[in-house]
Specification:
Helices cover about 40% and strands about 25% of the residues. It is an alpha/beta fold and about 575 residues long. The chain has 2 domains: about 230 residues, P-loop containing nucleotide triphosphate hydrolases (Rossmann fold), CATH 3.40.50; about 220 residues, Rossmann fold. Helix 12 packs parallel to helix 13.
Length: about 575
Amino acid sequence: MPRRRNRTAENGFLAKCPTGIQGLDEITGGGLPRGRPTLVCGGAGCGKTLLAMEFIVRGIQDFNEPGVFLAFEETAEELAANVASLEFDVPRLIRQGKLAIDHVRLERSEIEEAGEYDLEGLFVRLGEAIARVGAKRVALDSVEALFAGLSNVDILRAELRRLFRWLKEKRVTVVITGEQGAGQLTRHGLEEYVSDCVLFLDHRVHNQVATRRLRIVKYRGTTHGTNEYPTLIDEHGLSVLPISSLKLAYPVSSQRVSTGIPRLDTMLGGKGYYRGSSILVSGSAGTGKTSVAAAFADSLCRHGGKCLYVAFEESPEQIIRNMRSIGYDLERWRKTGRLLFQAMLPTVYGLEMHLATIQKQIAAYRPAAVVMDPIGNLMSIGEAAEIKAMLTRAIDFLKNLGITCLVTNLTAAGPDIEQTEVGISSLMDTWLLVRFLEANGERDRLLYLLKSRGMAHSNQVREFVLTDRGIQLREVYLGPGTVLTGSARLVQETKDQAAAMADDQAAERKRREALQEQSTLNAQIAALQARLDSLTGELQFVTTQQRARRAVLRQNRAALAALRKAD
């Protein structure tokens, strides 16, 4: 279904003609100026002809706008063959009467110039092609060939001015290609005639890796992107990757996904990472970054999810072998289709091709999570700013799809360990740092959380131990002014256990002595109590006997007195 065309200006703004080229319409604010010429210039191999052809073909396929392609260097058959790999069926469009391709052949050796002449024949051929297909779009590739075929430059320049005015009167949107000149945009100053919009394509080589860039030199009457934008040519055509077009409008989730390390889940509020978040695991060489990534991938696959593992350093077989030694069997997940490896050396492609390859794999595989290990290797093919821009686009792409992204990054040991070479820490929702602690003749690993947005998380340092049953996080020994790990922690814990045992034994000995003394005292108390009871009884008996004798004595005295008849 053809897309809606931007035929007229709305609210007084310049009318735009959408190109249909991915990313280009975003940085131009909707497309090229409708009914006006646009110059596309650049060196050999930068994609000028492809952009012009794609502008015409996309216009037909996506916007139902027929087009004319006027070629001065390649025939219609050559053009059709060149773009056939992009799924552009040029012969079919020609048969349908929607596309006209005209090849103008100019050979100076076959041309005899006599007196005054003009380009009226070119006007006639072009006008007939426009009328035949009802063209709304025209591509001229490359008009500069006229300068090679005709020697009278003054007449040619005047005729070109007339040609561009004539095309404006036809109200067709025109793309003109031109070769880059020395010290100017084109060899023959075509930019002097095309004053509405000028695009500059660049094909450069850095560290033996070729990359393409696009820049809008000028665009009258509208706002537009002014930066250099990475440009990619693949099996789908040309695409521009504008970092400035990204928007902070992706969905978020409160669901959690396990890290694969139980103690780390506990440090993250007991539940793990947020689903759809970005996680950075950084540290110096050998600290276990890949092991953390493998633990996450293993856990995700074990719970039924799919993971795409993008490896820039090791082959899948090497990763599988190494992770098997610490208890993570990634091979079984690869066999079941839950784990897909995409291993490539960074120098195979440029940054843009790496990004496009990852995006295509994600579109085809639809994973729940993506691991990129390690991103620091991309420094061999780009500058830090370029890598950050590429990763920003990748993370934005993943966040919009709700895909959890875990990346590892190698950092230098020393005071700058909490920094990344590519400066991506600000893009990450969760940042784990693993590092070595060297003491007592050994190096032990430590792990701690630098940040984890949107959740309560631990601020404690944990000892990071690789075992044959996976990763284990253990509490470090905190002594007076020191932190002990590894064998030093075990020795200190043994000493603490021995001291505690000695304390327990001493306490037990004292307890037994106290119990024995208590038993003795209780016996003495019992004896004294018995003696006391005996004395009490004897005292009561004596008292009773004394009372009885006194009573008998009183009775005897009374009886005696009665016998004596005493008064």
